[in-house]
Design goal:
Number of domains of chain B: 1
Low-confidence stretches of chain A: none
Radius of gyration of chain B: 16 Å
Strand order of the largest sheet of chain A: 1-2-3-4-5
CATH class of chain A: Alpha Beta
CATH topology of chain B: Heat Shock Protein 90
Distance between the termini of chain A: 23 Å
CATH architecture of chain B: 2-Layer Sandwich
Number of helices of chain B: 4
CATH class of chain B: Alpha Beta
Radius of gyration of chain A: 12 Å
Organism (chain A): Marinithermofilum abyssi
Keywords (chain A): Phosphoprotein
Number of helices of chain A: 3
CATH superfamily of chain B: Histidine kinase-like ATPase, C-terminal domain
Largest interface: A-B, 26 and 31 residues
Structural class of chain A: alpha/beta
Number of domains of chain A: 1
CATH topology of chain A: Transcription Regulator spoIIAA
Shape of chain A: globular
Largest sheet of chain B: 6 strands, mixed
CATH architecture of chain A: 2-Layer Sandwich
GO molecular function (chain A): anti-sigma factor antagonist activity
Shape of chain B: globular
Number of strands of chain A: 5
Strand content of chain A: 35-45%
Order of helices and strands of chain B: EHHEEHHEEE
CATH superfamily of chain A: STAS domain
Low-confidence stretches of chain B: 148-153
Oligomer: heterodimer
Mean pLDDT of chain A: 92
InterPro entries (chain A): Anti-sigma_ant, STAS_dom, STAS_dom_sf
Mean pLDDT of chain B: 86
Helix content of chain B: 25-40%
Domain STAS (chain A): 4-105
Chain lengths: 105, 162
């Protein structure tokens, strides 16, 4: 029931966040805390979710917040390594329509 | 006698986010035992977690409370009831706002919350919400959903009792 989040700066304007574990109501605030500052002044934020075993609507809410913040400055949020499970949730919620998803991890 | 509860498992957790994961483990254990497929188990874990998270977030608003989860095990289905005795809410109003994100709407209207009910309705065979005295969310999933004759449409219909 834990999450671990690692940050990798590809450049000043391109950041990658690697998320591992479970993103739920308990751990989503940790993800939000790490992700939101990156969204303020980056052009692209890559979120590697290949090692996420569980994500529910609280996690999806964090993604929406990040997407909104990035879009406000013409930035992009890109999800990398989306599992079939997460892909299904993104489709059900309509998030797959608005957030960029890159194949492969 | 398909309509008799074979077994009942009841759990009470503090209304705190860190205990929702414990309920997910219980869902997984019970559903596994009953012979549900992996994907159905994952669907149920998520739907039940959404119900519990709602209870934790809205029911007690800062005051301490408890969330009760009852697993009713039938031959052909698992019925999970999530109950809190906290603040009731306007079920009809919440339902009216429930649904997927609409990509044509402007950025500012994107909601960060409110996807939970939509997920529950999509992932379960039936979702029932009773908002009279606290909130009771009843989630039903049939084993081998497609082969069992059932009288609910897919995606689930939400019935509201006020």
């Amino acid at each position: 029931m834990n999450v671990s989040i690692q940050e990798k700066s590809d450049s000043d304007k391109v950041k990658t966040l690697i998320v591992e574990g479970e993103v739920d109501a308990f751990t989503a605030p940790q993800l939000r805390e790490k992700l939101m500052p990156l969204c303020k002044d980056s052009r692209e934020v890559y979120l590697d979710v290949s090692k996420v075993d569980y994500m529910d609507s609280t996690g999806l809410g964090v993604l929406i917040g990040a997407y909104k913040s990035l879009r406000a400055n013409q930035g992009r949020l890109i999800l990398v390594g989306v599992s079939p499970r997460l892909s299904r949730l993104l489709k059900i919620t309509g998030l797959a329509e608005i957030i960029d998803i890159e194949d492969g991890a | 006698m398909k309509d008799q509860v074979k077994d009942l498992v009841e759990m009470t957790i503090p209304a705190k986010a860190e205990y929702v994961g414990v309920i997910r483990l219980a869902v997984s254990g019970i559903a596994n035992r009953m012979g549900f497929h992996y994907d159905d188990i994952e669907d149920m874990k998520l739907a039940v977690a959404e119900a519990c998270t709602n209870a934790v977030d809205h029911a007690y608003q800062g005051t301490s409370g408890q969330v009760q989860v009852a697993f009713q095990i039938y031959d052909d289905r698992l019925v999970i009831q999530v109950t809190d005795r906290g603040n009731s809410f306007d079920v009809a109003a919440v339902k009216a706002r429930s649904g997927p994100i609409e990509s044509h709407l402007p950025l500012t209207s994107l909601r960060e919350r409110g996807l939970g009910l939509h997920l529950m309705e999509t992932l379960m065979d039936a979702v029932e919400i009773d908002g009279n005295d606290g909130v009771v969310v009843t989630l039903t999933k049939f084993i081998h959903g497609d082969e069992v004759d059932r009288d609910v449409d897919s995606p689930a219909k939400t019935q509201t009792h006020r």
